[in-house]
Design a protein that fits this description.
Elements (H helix, E strand, L loop, with lengths): L2 H14 L6 H12 L3 E9 L2 E8 L4 H11 L7 H4 L7 E2 L6 H4 L3 H7 L6 E9 L3 E9 L8 H38 L4 E7 L4 E4 L24 H15 L8 E7 L2 E9 L2 H4 L8 E8 L8 H6 L3 H11 L4 H8 L3 H15 L4 H17 L1
Antiparallel strand pairs: 1-2, 1-5, 3-4, 4-5, 6-7, 6-10, 8-9, 9-10
Helix pairs in contact: 1-2, 1-7, 11-13, 12-13, 13-14
Length: 370
């Protein structure tokens, strides 16, 4: 592989760390660089074993589901990863000759039918509960992989490992944020979280009326209350919490808005004092705006008895995302997304995704009016 092309490909690999939807295009570029009939990019959950994400350039979804359901749990070819250190490129032709492969059930029933006999492959990421590997496949009548193919793949595996590590760290962070937002949207309280600079880390839907979207000076915070005097008082409390030198208990400020009594509750936050880091190390202050009404959880999840996973799939579907985009956003297989969609349609008594979305918007609108 030409050095400049290799460096350009490495740059794109790191780009995928910030956007997991690019893994498929990266896989195709690696296929073009090394040469082969097919490329497989697989992220596998280990406890229990199941495919979390699969891109296979030559297989359709039904073939992937067949492998996951009937072949994967009894596939000796995968044992090659357990016997080789993570990050090591391998040429399967050194381990599995065609004579030996012909005696293996997984080859007879799956690989040979899809023209996959020889692999340039490597497991580039592994933790206690997840691993990822990439393989370039050639057919039995293709030329064998060369030493140069292995060297090129070895260089790429190193960068795939680092990129996947970054990606997983970002996914873990996003998952914490999504769970946090989901949890805070389950209560009838506005929630705003500030970092130590006074910038908003996130806020939930109920806090929208508190947010001042006008340009702010360096001495104020993007929070606005019904009166200027009350706004200044709130800014003073936030400023005191963010610049405290020791643990403080926080405070509350009652006020009236449109004849409704509300209460602002200010809580300082630090893992050092609170002994919890589930909101991240950057959080310094949480502001709650408590009203007079309550709600147990998002109306759609409550009305249709949805699980968290079903709710997340429905939420993304309502934003216009398709199955592939939902799969990439949640980092699950398309089969898993379709499984949740079937459950959603069953629970909402709808027969298509279009009906499901229309039903969801209608329910949310009626609930809001009520």
């Amino acid at each position: 592989m030409h050095e400049q092309k290799l460096l350009a490909l490495i740059d794109q690999i790191y780009g995928a760390s910030l956007d997991s939807s690019q893994w498929s295009s990266i896989s195709n570029l690696i296929l073009q660089a090394i040469g082969g009939h097919n490329v497989n990019f697989v992220v596998e959950d280990l406890n229990p074993s199941k495919l979390a994400y699969v891109y296979c350039s030559a297989l359709d979804q039904s073939a992937i589901e067949h492998y996951s359901r009937d072949i994967m749990n009894d596939d000796p070819v995968l044992e090659i990863f357990d016997a080789t250190p993570t990050g090591t490129a391998m040429l399967s032709q050194h381990f599995w000759g065609q004579d030996r492969l012909s005696k293996i059930r997984s080859y007879q029933e799956f690989y040979s039918r899809h023209r996959m006999t020889y692999f340039a492959t490597g497991q580039f990421y592994k933790t206690s509960d997840r691993r990822a590997y990439l393989s370039i496949a050639r057919a039995a009548n293709d030329t064998l992989f060369t030493k140069e193919s292995k060297i090129a793949l070895q260089r790429l595996l190193t960068h795939l490992k680092r990129s996947m590590f970054i990606n997983q760290q970002l996914l873990d962070y996003d998952a914490r944020v999504h769970e946090l937002e989901y949890g805070f949207n389950c209560i009838d309280a506005g929630v705003v979280m500030f970092n130590h600079f006074g910038k908003i880390l996130f806020s939930n839907d109920a806090a929208s009326e508190l947010l001042d979207k006008r340009p702010q000076s360096q001495t104020t915070y993007p929070i606005k209350l019904p009166s200027h005097k009350l706004t200044l008082k709130v800014h003073k409390v936030i400023d005191a919490i963010l610049h405290r030198s020791a643990y403080s208990e926080g405070c509350s400020i009652p006020y009236f808005e449109k004849a409704e009594r509300k209460t602002l509750v200010f809580l300082p936050w630090s893992p050092r004092y609170n002994h919890q880091n589930w909101v991240g190390d950057n959080a310094c202050c949480i502001l709650f705006c408590l009203g007079s009404s309550t709600k147990a959880q998002p109306v759609l999840a409550l009305h249709y008895d949805l699980t968290n996973k079903e709710y997340n799939v429905l939420r993304l579907l309502m934003t216009g995302k398709n199955v592939q985009e939902i799969s990439e956003a949640l980092f699950v297989s398309k089969a898993t997304v379709r499984f949740h969609l079937k459950n959603l349609m069953r629970k909402t008594s709808t027969c298509s995704q279009h009906q499901l979305v229309a039903c969801a918007f209608s329910t949310a609108r009626i609930a809001h009016i009520l």
